[in-house]
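Researcher: Let's continue the batch. This sequence belongs to Citrate synthase, and it's 383 residues. Same format as the previous ones, please.
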Amino acid sequence: MSEGIRKGLVGVVVDETAISKVDPESNSLLYRGYPVQELAATQPFEAVAHLLWHGELPSADELAELRAEERRHRVLADEVKAVIDLLPTSAHPMDEVRTAVSALGARVLGGVSAVDAGGTREENLARAIRLFAALPAVVAYGQRRRRGLEAIPPRDDLDYAANLLWMTFGEEFDPVVVDAFNRSMILYAEHSFNASTFTARVVTSTLSDLYSAVTAAIGALKGPLHGGANEAVLDIFEEIGDASRVPAWLDEALAAKRKIMGFGHRVYKRGDSRVPTMRKALETLAEHYDRPDVLELYTTLEDEFVSRKGIYPNLDYPSGPAYSLIGFDTLTFTPLFVAARVTGWTAHIMEQAASNALIRPLSAYVGPDERHVEGYVPDETDR
Ligand code: SDX
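Model: Same format as before. Here are the structure tokens for Citrate synthase:
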């Protein structure tokens, strides 16, 4: 490989950010300076969204104002629902969510020219809040329509986490479950220059609009090496069945050189800082739903894989079984990641837009030496 190339940008620092700090040495994650564990244990997700966008936790008035604005945009617009309904229910939910965001953007931006679509910080903050508010309805409707059920309208008397559960299941959940779900959304919200966030920053760096950047980020997050892993973790749990089958399953998977979804991380090498918090939430849910078998399988697979390969779980590993216990379909897991990460993505979009620097790396050419067309005669033989 040519000199100086860092494939996959491994270890390359490409820009500064004030939004979050991922530190593999201390195995920590700070959102605007606050340890994510403290935020997950004490804050509603709406307050963390405010922190990511504005750099500070909200005052009581600011939180009330954000909650009021979020409530104003919860309803899934008929036109967006109609676009989703054009897709077959067999479409992957990430394609559904990506399409819905694109349709939302086309409606909000209307005829705004590409030159002006980038928007001001105020316009992008309003767009960020609208997406933050609208995505739960998109995610909930996706799961319901795949089950042949009608959409459930939002409830103004429920905060963000409880309302997303209400729109998906049509029931009010025990506060223990709402709290565990709220914690998962905070843990998923932001993680510096991960592939989907960096994708959003690249799109923004051309002065394109927020909806195009989020649509591109959803495309990146869908990949099983990134957000799609939480869905794949449940597939693995279903493949294994029960804890007693873990050793044999792992023998086979590792012999086939399979990537074990939910394990490993590009930045953390001794474990993902978010996992202990999400694991506690999973333990709470397993107790609440009386499902010790889920924890047994979770722990057995982790212990076996870590002892054999020294590769540790990432956030997707505990969040998959947690979402399954709550009742979300496996295919809904990564859309939930979108609903959470849209706060981090839009914070980075606003930060990138302010920096005004086009992202355009170089490449080392390894193709044919220069040659000329006059030497080319299309011959009859197939190439
Ligand atoms: C997320 O970047 C972020 O912050 C992402 C994220 C976020 O919040 O945005 O944290 C969310 O994307 C978490 C990751 C979810 N993906 C998965 O769980 C998929 C499985 N994980 C692997 O594909 C892998 O660990 C990656 C992609 C996550 C990390 O990839 P790297 O950095 O390219 O892998 P590596 O250099 O750490 O791997 C070193 C070795 C390799 O073996 P060799 O080829 O050198 O023999 O470890 C192996 C890898 O094959 N390895 C695995 C493995 N992870 C690494 N082998 C089997 N199963 C795995 N999960």
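Researcher: Any comment?
Model: The longest strand covers residues 20-23.
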